[in-house]
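Student:
Attend to each token:
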Amino acid sequence: MPRIAHVISTPEGVGGAERVLASLVAEGAKRGWDQAVLNPFALDPDRSELVGALDGAAPYRGRRCASFGHLPAMLAWLRRELRGFRPDVVHAHLFHAGVAVAALGARRRSGPSRVLTHHHGDHLLFERRRLEARLDRAACRRPDRVVAVSSWGMELLASRLGLPRERLACIPNGWSGTPFPQSGLAGRPTAICVARFRRQKGHRDLLAAFSLVRERIGDARLLLVGDGPLEGEIRAGAAALGLGESVEFRGAVGDVWPHLAEAHVFALASLYEPLGIAALEAMAAGLPVVATAVGGVPELVEVGKTGRLVRPGAPEEMAAALVELLTDPDLRQGMGNEARRRAAGRRASVTVERYFDLYGELPAASG
């Protein structure tokens, strides 16, 4: 059976990339593949949340690398791990992992095939991290295949990073699990956002929008599901706007479906977003989506059919769209039903099958 080593750069937490990895590892275990998961950038190698997401489906080894001074030892560790495991395929996930694998040198003729999933889209360009953007471009030139998670992302890789299209693949992320039926707990008009508290996710804009919503709908509430480095700042922002108990912080949750079942509308105010798997999960739960028109999000949300798209950094536009859907049950139900229908074809099982088809095309895995 083929041997695959997944290399991911996850300091802490579990997001879309980690969930994709967990799905791939689970399928690999079913197929009898020999697998290893290596995380050279864990903040706490012994207590990574990624271990829980993998659920024992593959061995996990992590290493702390939190500064430039740690890089030589980290690269030596990664080289040793890969030599000891002797994989047929090395699959890198996220920017730092892609750069680390590329730094090991060009692939030898008899060496493992390499795949990089470019989960991060244009966030390095957006954040004006020019040196890292150049490293990203260089790292993307080493693998046998580079995978984009949306058509928008594939165009980014081809047009802005200049990668040859014959080495690119588009495999959109999918959702997994079992959505709950609407629970009836949302007696009050309720919006929900599922996102880590990072600048990318635009929580400050979302709070500004919700403050405007409250001026029109006095009993509206907002559920915020997730954790992250900016949580304290967002809590303080909600208090400063006088939102009080109308904003509920649910923290990081293992099962998002019961929380989605409490809501009427899903809101996402991201400043950049390669795809937006949280929005896809909300669609699977039958919620219309109000989101910013960034990255791959317009590939999920069709205006007037499954939700509304607004400009990033425009809280007044988001507020108007939320008010419209929170006050019109018929419109909301029609969009929610269509959202559920469209999400049905975008399950994680489809994503996983396409990855294993891709692995089968690689010379080291197929030979």
